[in-house]
Amino acid sequence: MKLLSRITALTVLASPVLLGQPASRESAAPPEFPFRRPVSPEGLGARGVLRFSISRDSLRSFTESAGSSESDYDLLRRFASDLGVVLQTRVLGTPVDAAQQLEAGMVDLAVLPADFATRAGMVSTDPCPEPSAGESGRVTAFLREDSLPLAQLLSGASRRIADTGMGENVLPLYCDRSRADDEPVEPELPKARRISRYAPTIAKYARAAGFDWRLVAALIFQESSFEERAVSVAGAQGLMQLMPGVSAEVGVANATHPEANIRAGVLYLRRLSNQFREAESSDRLALVLAAYFLGSGHVFDGQDLARELGLNAQTWRRGVEETLPLLEDPRFHARTRLGFAHGRQAVDYVNRILERYEVYRQRLDRHPEMRASVERVRGDA
Questions:
Q1: How confident is residue 219, by pLDDT bands cut at 50, 70 and 90?
Q2: Is the pLDDT confidence value at 160 over 50?
Q3: How many CB atoms lie within 10 A of CB 342?
Q4: Per-residue confidence band for 309, with pLDDT thresholds at 50, 70 and 90
Q5: How confident is the model at residue 11 (pLDDT cuts 50, 70, 90)?
Q6: What 3 state SS string does the chain have?
């Protein structure tokens, strides 16, 4: 996933109202529409377009409501981009009009007021509690229940995005409608219990290697979401998602055990860090994370392109962050040493970890689930 940190608050999957008349849960099943087809991820990919309907009033709420930071619409557009399709918007007069388009199969998704969640036939991945009676300030995305594969895809995306740092800060603004505007928000910290479990071990090895343990925790979250038995399709294993060859390179023969996996991953980070000594501290971290994702060679290629283009090869912002995506363009990667690389994914990976690292720096020490572990980390220092 790309920068989706607030899309969770938009992914309520539900069926619409029928023919302009809201249908209760007890009402008869809706009539079949002869041209309506279930929406699947494969179908969207073949068509190349994700269509959604929204009323004029809802569009204003969608882009201008408290907590949206006028970027919710953009985030939904990015979500469509992650699916490999273009987002197409149909702005209609009322929410009922938007719902009718969804029911008729003229659109794949409708953005409606949250109180539409009380209608019949809905499937929901809404991270917020059930909307209160008459609630209409929040708008969310709805799908028909005959589109379960896409609903499942969005459900998985919701769970992942709910765990991102930006989602942590935004979801309470959507979900807690009774909160006073000036009341401070202290949202939950995802995976706090698991972070607490591994914090002393992470700190032990991170400190020895010269890293802030919270950076390593942010990387682990990105790699495995603290699932110690995680195995990728490519064969990367454990909390830090290491390939067997990498752990062997740093002298850890079997990195399947969580502590050994953390030790091997931190040693690998240390090795990568030694390859970017010329960069300043914060830029060096970004380059190391990019190398963790792509391998050092591709980051070196990105640095070479930065020099060719007159950018600073030792900085991240306005430097290698700008050139790594060029490694996907044959006009550029054809003249590099290692050729093609998933540069855009690497940039997103690095920035997600750095954003989460900042969240951890601000909040881990004072989170209730973390206090005992943080004290233990400090005591071991």
A1: very high
A2: no
A3: 16
A4: very high
A5: very low
A6: CCCCCCHHHHCCCCCCCECCECCCCCCCCCCCCCCCCCCCHHHHHHHCEEEEEEEHHHHHHHHHCCCCCCCHHHHHHHHHHHCCCEEEEEEECCHHHHHHHHHCCCCCEEEEEHHHHHCCCCCCCCCCCCCCCCCCCCEEEECCCCCHHHHHHHHHHHHHHHCCHHHHHHHHHHHCCCCCCCCCCCCCCCCHHHHHHHHHHHHHHHHHHCCCHHHHHHHHHHHHCCCCCCECCCCCECCCCECHHHHHHCCCCCCCCHHHHHHHHHHHHHHHHHHHCCCCHHHHHHHHHHHHHHCHHHHHHHHHHHHHCCCCCCCHHHHHHHHHHHHHCHHHHCCCCCCCCCHHHHHHHHHHHHHHHHHHHHHHHHCCCCHHHHHHHHHCC
Full-model pTM: 0.56
Rounded distance between C-alpha atoms, residue 165 and residue 162, angstroms:
8
Which two structure tokens, joined as six digits, stand for 316?
A: 């991240």
d(CA 244, CA 71): 41
**Quick one: average pLDDT of 39-49?**
81
| Rounded to 5°, angle at Cα 180 from 177 and 182 | 130
- 């008729």: which residue's tokens? 104
Residue 23 pLDDT > 60: no
